[in-house]
Amino acid sequence: MARLRKTSAALIGVAALALAIPAAPAQAANPIEKPAAVCIEPGSDSDAQARGAQRTYGDDHRDVSPRQQRAIERRTDAILKNKGVSEKRAGSATATIPTYIHVMLDKDGNGDVTRRQVVRQIAVLNNTFAGGESDQAANTGFTFDLVDVDRYYNNAWHNDHASTKYRSLTREGGADALNIWLVDFKYLGVATFPWDYERNGDVDGIRVHYDSLPGGSITNYNLGETATHEAGHWLGLFHTFQGGCTEENDGVADTPAQSSPTFGCPEGRDSCALPGLDPIENYMDYSFDSCYTEFSTGQSDRMSTMFTAYRS
Asked: I need a surface site. Which of 47, 107, 259, 303 has the fewest CB within 10 A?
C-alpha cells in the first residue's frame, strides 16, 4: 500500500495560501455509496494532449429514468412543504458555498496544480455562476468561497481507486460545502446529486481531472469549466440531453430538448423536432469549454430549489 502524506493550505481571502503542518486524516466509516453522476471521459489515449479529443460516456454512467426523475420531484416538493418554504421563495435562494479542494497526488508528486490554477478555478466557478460569460446567462446567486486546499500523497487515491474510502476520510464541511477532489482518471468529472446527501453525505462532492483546471493539458477542456458542469450536477441539474427528445427532458422549461450530447461546438445543431436549437452553449451539455457560456434562468431556479431542499 502506498504511503499517505497530507499537507494542508488554508486560503486567506482568495489570493494567498498558508502552509499548515502535515497531518493524517481522521478515520471514518465507509458508507454504502449510490452510483454517482459520471459525466465524460477525456479519451483513452495516454497522451494528455490527445485525451480531450472526444468525450464519451463513462462506464458507470448513472442514468435517471423518467420514473425516478418524477420521484425526485415529488420528494423535493414534500421536503419544501415540510420546511414551510414556498416554490417561489425556494427558487430565488442564494448562497455562498464553502469550497474545499483536495489535490490527490501520487507518491512522486504527480498530479499537482499550482496556487494560480486553484485561484483561477475558483474565479471560473464564480464567473460562470454569476452569468459572466454571456448577456443571456442567468446570475444564479451562488458564489464559491475557497476555505482550504490540502494535498494527499497516495498512488491509489491519485488514480481514483478506493474513492469511497478516500472521500469519506477527507471530506470537509456539511451539506452546503462543496468538496472538489482533483484526480487522474479516465473521466473529466464525476458528481453526486444533492438528494443523495442524506444517505451518502460522507462522499458528497465532485471529482475533477486535475488537468481540466485552467492551464491544464487536456485540449478543449482546460478552461476550468468541467468544475462548473459538475457543480451544476451537485446543485441538482441534469444534463440538457436528459430524457432525449421529450417534453420532460431535463425538467427545466427553458432548455430545449436534445437527443444526445454535443461534442465540439456545432453551431445550429438541432437534434429534436421539438422547438428550439440544441443548447450547445449550456454548461450542462458536453461541448468544448470554449463553447460554454451559460446557465439558463430555469436552471438557476432549479439549483436554488434543490439547494433549499437538500443543502440548507
From this structure: 47
On whether the 84-306 domain is CATH 3.40.50.300, my answer is no
* Whole-angstrom distance, CA of residue 233 vs CA of residue 185: 19
pLDDT at 205 over 90: yes
Nearest to 208 by CA among 241, 186, 239: 186
Q: What is the reported pTM?
A: 0.85
Nearest to 237 by CA among 179, 194, 177: 194
Among all residues, which ones are annotated catalytic? 230
**What residues does each domain of the chain span?**
84-306
